[in-house]
Amino acid sequence: MHPLFTRNRLRLYLLAWVPLTVTSIYVLVTRGTLGWLQATALAVAVYLFYAFLCLSAWYPCRATPLGKVSFLRLLLTHLIAAALMSFIWIEAGAALSYTVLSPEKFDAIKLRFEPQVNAIFTVGVLLYLLSVAFHYVLIAMEDSRRAEAQALEARVFARDAELKALKAQINPHFLFNSLNSISALTSIDPARARDMCVLLGDFLRLTLGLGEKTSVRFSEELDLLQKYMAIEKVRFGARLTMLEEIQEESKACLLPPLLLQPLVENAVKHGIASLPEGGEIRLAAERQDGRLAIVVENSWDPEAPPRRSGGMGLKNVQRRLEARYGKDASLRVNTEGELFQVSLNLPAESEEKA
Description:
The protein is of the alpha+beta class. 64% of the residues lie in helices and 13% in strands. It is rod-shaped and about 115 Å long.
């Protein structure tokens, strides 16, 4: 489909022909002895016909793209097309004049302008070549817009693929740690190991449904965390406590699924597990000024030897935030004495907005 066949673009294109049409009306009145009404009707019809005829330049322009065909082919293609279109225009104008005007006025117009037919033919060729130049500009704009759209689509696909890959890392990582805990309990307390297996099954069953979604409500994420903490409570007992300071308005905000679970898991694995007396995990969330602030804070021993870990949890969360929100979200880590704190700040999206 021709790109000018939309209302606004076609209007602008036809407006470009108005000055030439007005000039021709004036010439027909002053030198062709026609009345204003006849001159206007004839000039408008002739130039409207040629304006639409020049739209055909779109097709040879597409067939001979700049930089991809030889200059000789380019020149011959458009010169031949320009000569043909100009010839058709002159013959159509003569036929239209013969139809509209009386024989006497037609003969007078023909006698007056016949010596200038070569000049009129040249004008027709130049107008068509201007149309060719215009269409090459239009093609360049269309190609640029198409390339931008394809680049944007590619970025979206890449981001979605990255998000799926990052999300796919979470369940195996968590499952591996949980199975290690169950393995450790089987020889110490088989009953607790059995309870942990049941809770783990419930947790994984819930994540299967939510894992297919791109976003979940913060309240759903809290339910997941509570099930996760129930699993870890089997292992740590009274050594592990969790304090929730959740603003009610924040529970309706949307999050990428399983965004907070790796942070809480890190708090347990690298914080509470290294303390013989155990410790507390504090989860706080507040929605304010279109932003959602989340804090995961836990007790830890800063002098304890670092565990062998690639830090996958924090890196995963950081990369998921970047892939989902770009620079509009942040993750900060702060250590003060015996407290390890991870702070998230991201847009407060809701289901209505999404």
